[in-house]
UniProtKB/TrEMBL annotation:
Residues 14-163 form the Hydroxymethylglutaryl-coenzyme A synthase N-terminal domain. The keyword Transferase applies. InterPro entries: HMG_CoA_synt_C_dom, HMG_CoA_synth_N, HMG_CoA_synthase_prok, Thiolase-like. Pfam families: HMG_CoA_synt_C, HMG_CoA_synt_N. It comes from the Bacteria. Keywords: Transferase. Residues 245-326 form the Hydroxymethylglutaryl-coenzyme A synthase C-terminal domain. This is Hydroxymethylglutaryl-CoA synthase. Belongs to the thiolase-like superfamily. HMG-CoA synthase family. PANTHER family: 3-HYDROXY-3-METHYLGLUTARYL COENZYME A SYNTHASE (PTHR43323), HYDROXYMETHYLGLUTARYL-COA SYNTHASE (PTHR43323:SF2). Signal peptide: none annotated.
Length: 392
């Protein structure tokens, strides 16, 4: 049985911060961001937009009424969870009006969680072939103003509908994973922002790639020549470029090396304009590749490298299905250009705002008219979400 991604969607916030503006305000050489990180813009989420609203919006963009009747599992991967007990998947299940007899839960392991969700979803469909599983990777990367990680923030969500006989990508049974107990990036419960050992994290990312790729090749009998493209986790695109250079097989014909490099460039276009979205970053790269590469064709094999600090890494592959391009958008870059630009001062106020609760745990919000879903209030410490009725 063939199992894979039947539909894929994306959502981000309506606000954008230009990194050239941030560089000017912070007294940083703009090239340090545009060339040093390969980033151009960051999506900035207001208080009324969180990983629940973003995840719901990403899914809402691809699901039909029939899909909502057939989905029997909702998995959300995030490291930006909004409750220590109730899973964000339960909120999203309700917002999307998915049939009630579905299992809904949340997965966490830094940026790796969505890959684990795909693995679990695939096993479920193998046992129940008529199932459809909604996998969401939704996060807001927030490091704080004036921090080293500030230029790599971002916000967004990827939604993937998995089924048998998929219309975009078919997974191969070739996953190889590796776990290391390291402290390269972590966020204790009492901290609103993470702690990062940046140089060490870069080393862990690249070494996990190198060693997992070596083990993958040994177990599967495959090498870089067997792939049309290689997608990477994208905390920032320059790190992934280092990864591609690290595994590049210089014995390949120059034409194939050029194809891998061109497809890499296609895979980072969206991330360059959105920033880091943690669990969704690898799959935003995949979406960008599929929607922007002019070199892919049905039957091509794509490798994917997933990495979550702490750390878990996994390499797996999928094959493009005939007609995959019919399930994709051709206007996403233009849509990203419609976001409202923010000054640095407005970004600082918007992105780092916190809910001001009264003594009973209440707060109400406004200014969410252009969102698809919104956090509209907190009532006695309960978060209340609604689908936004757009004015005609």
């Amino acid at each position: 049985m063939t199992i894979g991604i039947d539909k894929i969607g994306f959502a981000t916030s309506n606000y954008v911060l230009k990194l050239k503006d941030l560089a000017e305000e912070r007294g940083i050489d703009p090239d340090k961001l545009s060339k040093g990180l390969l980033l151009k813009e960051l999506s900035i989420a207001p208080l009324t937009e969180d990983m629940v609203t973003l995840g719901a919006a990403a899914a809402d963009s691809i699901l039909t009424a029939e899909d909502r009747k057939k989905i029997d599992m909702v998995i959300v991967a995030t490291e930006s969870g909004i409750d220590q007990s109730k899973a964000s998947a339960v909120f999203i299940h309700g917002l999307l009006d998915i049939q009630p007899f579905a299992r809904s839960f949340e997965i966490k392991e830094a940026c790796y969680g969505a890959t684990a969700a795909l693995d679990y979803a695939k096993l479920h469909i193998e046992k129940y072939p008529d199932s459809k599983v909604l996998v969401l990777a939704s996060d807001i990367a927030k490091y704080g103003a004036h921090t080293p990680g500030e230029p790599t923030q971002g916000a967004g969500a990827i939604a993937m509908l998995l089924s048998r006989n998929p219309r975009i990508l078919a997974f191969n049974d070739d996953n190889v994973a590796q776990t290391r107990d390291v402290m390269d990036f972590w966020r204790p419960n009492y901290s609103a922002t993470p702690y990062v050992n940046g140089i060490y994290s870069t080393q862990q990312y690249l070494d996990s790639l190198k060693t997992t790729w070596a083990e993958y090749q040994k177990r599967q009998g495959l090498s870089l020549k067997d792939f049309a493209a290689f997608c990477f986790h994208l905390p920032y695109p320059k790190l992934a470029l280092k990864g591609l250079n690290k595994i590049m097989d210089k014995s390949l014909p120059q034409a194939q090396q050029d194809q891998l490099k061109d497809n890499f460039e296609a895979s980072i276009l969206y991330s360059q304009k959105v920033g880091n979205i943690y669990t969704g970053s690898l799959f935003l790269g995949l979406l960008s590749l599929l929607e922007n590469s002019d070199q892919l064709k049905a039957g091509d094999k794509i490798a994917l490298f997933s990495y979550g600090s702490g750390a878990v890494a996994e390499i797996f592959s999928a094959d493009l299905v005939p007609g995959y391009e019919e399930q994709l958008s051709q206007t996403r870059l233009e849509e990203l250009n419609l976001r409202q630009p923010l000054s640095v001062a407005d970004y600082e106020q918007l992105f780092f705002a916190e809910a001001q609760l009264d003594e009973a745990g209440n707060a109400s919000f406004s200014g969410y008219e252009n969102q698809t879903f919104a956090l509209t209030e907190i009532a006695e410490h309960q978060r209340k979400y609604s689908k936004v009725e757009k004015s005609s």
